[in-house]
Amino acid sequence: MINQVWKDIKAGYYKQKKEELMDKKGRWNREKRILMYLLSRDAGKNNTEIGELLNGIHNSSVGNTIRCVAKEIAVDKKTRLEVSKIESKYVVKQI
């Protein structure tokens, strides 16, 4: 699941190389922030695991970012549509 989310974020929607996504700082990297949110919600990864995947970001920073993206989705139609388009590229299986 993680690989599918990662693939859809970096290649399927944003068309960025992994290095480009990883190098840019989090606050100014919209793509990385949305990736953290989707890895948490759809891949079921905790903040520590997400931080390790993204070059050692501290787990509290990951948690703060996820909360901010969730708030942004709630109030901003553009962000909500962007996340929906990314999600439509993969299927989340419910067990």
What does this structure look like?
- This protein is 68% helix and 0% strand.
- The model has no long low-confidence stretch (mean pLDDT 79).
- It is mainly alpha-helical.
- The protein is globular, with a radius of gyration of 12 Å.
- It contains 6 helices and no strands.
- It has a single domain (2-87), classed as Orthogonal Bundle (Chromosomal Replication Initiator Protein Dnaa, Chain: A).
- The protein has helices spanning 2-13, 18-23, 30-41, 47-53, 59-75, 77-87.
Helix/strand layout:
Layout: H1 2-13, H2 18-23, H3 30-41, H4 47-53, H5 59-75, H6 77-87
Q: Please, what is the oligomeric state?
A: single chain
Major β-sheet profile: none
Name of the CATH architecture: Orthogonal Bundle
Summing up helix and strand content along with how strands pair, one would put the structural category as mainly alpha
Short description:
The chain is an all-alpha fold and 95 residues long. The protein has helices at 2-13, 18-23, 30-41, 47-53, 59-75, 77-87.
